[in-house]
Write a structure and sequence with these properties.
The structure holds 2 protein chains of 2 kinds. By secondary structure, chain A is mainly α. Among the domains of chain A are: about 1-40; about 55-85. Helix content of chain A is about 55%, strand content about 10%. Chain A contains 5 helices and 3 strands, in the order H-H-H-H-H-E-E-E. In chain A, a hairpin with a 5-residue loop joins strand 1 (about 100) and strand 2 (about 110). By secondary structure, chain B is mainly alpha-helical. Chain B has a domain at about 25-110. In chain B, about 55% of the residues lie in helices and about 10% in strands. Chain B has a two-stranded antiparallel ribbon with strand order 2-3. The mean pLDDT of chain B is about 95. Classes of the chains: A mainly alpha, B mainly alpha. The interface of A and B includes residues 115, 119 and 121 of A. Strand 3 (about 115-125) of chain A pairs antiparallel with strand 2 of chain B.
Amino acid sequence: MKRYSPVVFILLAMALLAVACGGTVANTAPTATPPPPTEKPAPSPTPEPTETPLPPTATAAKAPSPAATDAVAMEKPTVAPTDTVAPPSPTPAPDWLSVEGRTADGLPTLGNPDAPVVVVDYSDFL
Amino acid sequence: MLGTEPELKETYVKSGEVLLVFNPILDHADRSVQAHNAAECAADQNRFWPLHDVLFEFESQLYGGDVRAVIKELALQVDMDHDQFNQCVDAQTYVERVKAQDQRRRALGIRTRPTIDVNGQLFVGPQPFTVLQTAIQPILE
């Protein structure tokens, strides 16, 4: 077998080291490439912030939620009444017990002149 | 009809399903004429039915004394212009009208008091509300 001098081993080791260092540099370079970084930043902010905000969610639950709900509740009626107010005004149920009138014959009437039923009471006060 | 009228009003007149009409019967000569004339005077102020209710409620008082004075006194229970009302009563403004209305019901053959006409169906004599209801309800359904 051929014998190698220790220098050869040293050189080999240095070469390996150089390769190892070069790999690191090479890895650094690809890391800078768009794909990996894009993947990393995306997932990391999503999970972590989601968990961190949870405690603050209590803050959101403190007032913001009800406040927002109230705000919506306040806004809706403001809009709804406009639509609701219109129909009710023309539809006030008349108090027929206070509506007096006359028949074509001049007899006194009480109630809805267009009622489907007409009840005539022939009577005396005595 | 006095007995059933409150229920009739509350159940059907108030809802607009029944129109109530009153046709006088002059069974007690001048006392009846005066009472109906007074009711017509109240009608001038849209107070026919309030006075009608008072006269029925206190009808026993109409049998004695000066009937016109009694009516004027009873009419104080009705919110209206009493000077105008009293003048109308004294002027006998509607005597001929109520007499004509009474004459018309005689011509229709209605002799019994009270007689109730429900869309042409006659009920002679006092009737319980349920009887009138059996005549009214089918018409509404």
